[in-house]
Amino acid sequence: MTTALILLPIAGALLVWLLPWPTSRAAGGLALLVALAELFLWIVAVRGFDFGSGTLQQGADVTWFADLDASYKVGLFDFSLWLVGLTAFVGVAAIAYGMWAGRERPRAYFGLLLFLTGATIGVFSAQDLLLFYLFFEAMLIPLYVLIGVWGGTRRAVATVKFIIYTMAGSLLMLVAVIALGLANETFDLTRLQANDNPWIFLGFVAAFAVKAPLWPFHGWLPDAYREAPTEVAALLSGVVSKTAAYGLIRIVLPSFPEPVVDFRTVILILASVGLVYGSLLAFRAHDVRGVIAYSSLAQMCLIVLGIFANNASGLDGALLQMINHGLVSAALFLLAGAIERRTSTARLELLGGMARGRPLLASLLLATGVIALAVPLSSAFAAEFLILNGVFDRGWGYAVVGALAIVLAAMYTLRLISAVLHEDVGSAVHPQALDLRPAEVAIIGALVVALVALSFWPAGITDHAFTAVLSAR
Amino acid sequence: MTGAAWTALVSPAVAVVLIALAGERITRRGAGFLAAGATLVSFVATLVVFFALLGRDAEERSESSTLWTWLSAGDLRFGFEIAIDPLSVFMMLVVSGVGFLILSYAVGYMHGDVEERRYHAYKALFVFSMLLLVQAGNLLLLLAGWGMVGLSSYLLINFWHQRGSAVRAGKKAFIMNAFGDATFALALFILIAETGTLSFAPVFERAPEALGEGSTLATLVALGLLGGAVAKSAQIPLHTWLPDAMEGPTPVSALIHAATMVTAGVYLIARTNPLFELAVDIQHLAAILGGVTIVVAGLIALVQTDIKRVIAYSTMSQIGYMFVGAGLGAYGAGLFHLMTHAFFKALLFMAAGIVIHALAGEQDIRKMGGLGRELPWTFRFMLIGALALAAIPPFAGFFSKDAVLASAANAGKLGWVLWGLGAAGAFLTALYTFRMLFIVFGRQASGFVREHLHKERFEGPLAMAWPVAVLAVLAVVGGLLQIPGVWHAVDDWIHPVAESIEEASGATAILSALAALGLSLAGIAVAWILYRRPSRAPERARRTAPWAAQLLENRFFVDEAYDVYFYEPASRGASFLHRFVERPVFLTTLGDLGASVRGGGRRLGTAQNGVVRSYAFAVAAGAAVLLVVFLIAS
Questions:
Q1: What ipTM was reported for this prediction?
Q2: What is the pLDDT of residues B22-74, one digit of tens each?
Q3: Taking the CA of residue A190 as centre, how many other CA atoms within 13 Å lie in the half-sphere pointing to its CB?
Q4: Are A471 and A54 in contact (CB under 8 A)?
Q5: Domain edges within chain A
Q6: Where are the domains of chain B?
Q7: B598 touching A (Cβ < 8 Å)
Q8: Measured between CB atoms, which of A157, A219, A470 is closest to B586?
Q9: pTM of the predicted model, to two decimals?
Q10: Mutate to test the interface with B, among A321, A394, A414, A473 (most CBs of B within 10 A)
């Protein structure tokens, strides 16, 4: 089953590349069908999943290099299942939006999007270190091309930065993967022994810190999020960044119990700093995407706070927030794209007054915004509450900083909402600029509906995750 | 009974969804009727619950009902849980009852607004949030309702979002309340760590042992809760958002910023009284903040020129009385004042709304005058509200304010200080209320009034008139629910949840009431002398003490202080980080890594020049270096 989940989008990508009709509608349509089939497959996987057992499920294991004890081993834990679902769902939204917006060279474009989806799902389900690394790298290739070819005017700079940063991180991880594999005499993730080598630990942490990104490894983020095509930015911030948090949960926490304790204070402090830093810069950003980019930085730091709190509350909260933020930032980026299409700008001082006569845009932006700022009763509130409650156990200072950051989040989100929707009509807002079209409403609305549904029952996730991890303690 | 309680909660939420989905398929007015109707359903359901509880013994009136587990983490479980007990039913009656009247009034008031449907949907969302707040069966859900009322308040304050002032006011209200939410949440983390749950009954049961009476932890918990209460109830020092919130439509001010949401702080203190009683200092702090707010807000109200802002400051000041009551442990008195205040303050706002409506949106009292003859019924309603606010018997405010003052008189030295503040507040209240009344309704009709007044039948649409009349009746008779020394219906009703301290003895209570009444009458008399007709006396007073006028007109410069000490540093800090950290370090230096690597590559590339000589040289040099390295290593 897991193999099917990985292979379907990758095979779909090949199919789209080979498609004889080079129109956006044909290529996008096929890609969308594949993405929908993937989502359906995931639902089937959920239905067949036994949440009580907490074991690795629906897996496959084929020997790859017998000498190294490396194999093609995949499978799903309860928490990875949710992240696979997030990827499939946001993948559908991204491809649908790209198809609606229309892109040049559509076969390559949609093929790459599908490939990216497949590789990301591969990361979430790999149970072998080498395989994990393979998918982790495979994820980057389509991103380089998607940003470098289809990006905005400054795409070259953005791509180079992105490549340098992620390559550096990847190389460190490769060294760490080899070292950890050799030390264990196996690359099988399910059979790794606890390791107390701080250098291997730091290799993994650095790679994930770049990918997430965490402060101070975020230099690539503002440019990449600004220059990437809308739906690529949505996938990048919504889903791809979550692979880093997943890596911390799946590899770092179980494999390095001692270094995790030794370095906990440092990492928690860095994450707290990043949380405030990102929030302040989001408050200061001049453009819509800048606000979303820096708020993503802050949110990833918050998630890391939960992960390194390393208790039930922190981990459950971190997972829930990974799902929330995936949906929220995807919706926000697509909304940013919708605004940019109508005004040809994202600069806040040129926007304003868009609520008048555009009730759908206003409602969706407002709904996404208030969930993003974690208004109580939303699933984001539930997640942040759990994260801060978890990290409170490690020191009340972190929780105080986190609570302060919630106030800052209210400040930058309301500023964004007002700057786009309220007061005087901005100079870039043409009176004839349309409200959201039905296709846009359907795509972004689906993301918002998922968030609202999650707000009704956040325990749907937290009750069905980490059964094995937490009962082992 | 549980079914009725859930119906009360869910009904407004259903209205929100229906209005949102129906879009233009229902008329604007229809949306209003839907919202008001849903609130009426809540009220009726609440009555069902109320009578069901009334039929039981006092000690068996508390129940809770959980529909599903809302959130979990390990052993922690937080249910979607409501509490059905005297306190929550008391609040539900006020919220859904007064809420229904105000939502009905709003159908008339908002008639013709372009976005009327959105308004009614937000209003129903607020009622749902407020009911969630008072019905929540655990502190997490209470916090959820707490934040949701903040959200609906934000949405309604900046309902007229074309106005920059409304947008700023909305943001300010939300952000100040977010502060309160944050301290509230921090208090909950301590409770989770120490007691392992957030459901009311087990938390209150385990808290004395887990926290310890008077311990630092207990103090911090109470302080965190108090932070939330102070922000939501606009008490000093987190009060500056409330006057600005008057940017919203008038029915919003009546419902949210007078009758219900702003009194949530009092509810919170009464609800979590077992926690506050573990940290008596903090509970007294609540009373002191309330006492200071009574006087400060009363003073500021004296110089306000916007009719709604006068009433807003009076709301702050009246909530101060409730805080004094709740802070001293006289929960019955505090909640009693909460109820009567909901009646007469909603009445005042709605009568003011009729005035504003009749004057085409004008709110400046300096432009008004002589309206008593033009709008006689509105004048009578306003007069009832003013008499109730100024605590003149037999109007409702007299009994409830008196109950608070009598409890203060009974509470030792601190109590006497607070009594003094409350008594001074009584004088100020009467003075600013009747100042407004005389300026607006007395005197000669101003040129502005003659030009702009447009009257309808009943001085306003019928939809606006009848809820005002009902509230006027309640403002007259509402106080009879509890008469010191005769009966204490409110105290008796809520005592299973919040046991009040002993009431003052008969003699003290009567003396305190007489003194306060004297001060109120004095306030009215002074207002009569100064403001009955245009005079130079206020102008002279301003000239003799210009600093005092400055201080009051600038509202003690608290807004400015927040700008200087909070907003500016945050904003400057963000700019500083962007200019001196983010751009040079992360965007340029590290960002240029790419460029420098490329530059290095280009330079290295020149080595590949195709000249065999240089290759041979490089090989020889390399071999030489390796040789040296091996020699040293061996």
A1: 0.91
A2: 878 888 888 889 999 999 999 999 999 998 888 887 777 888 888 888 998 88
A3: 17
A4: yes
A5: 1-255, 262-473
A6: 1-278, 289-553, 557-597+610-633
A7: yes
A8: A219
A9: 0.90
A10: A414
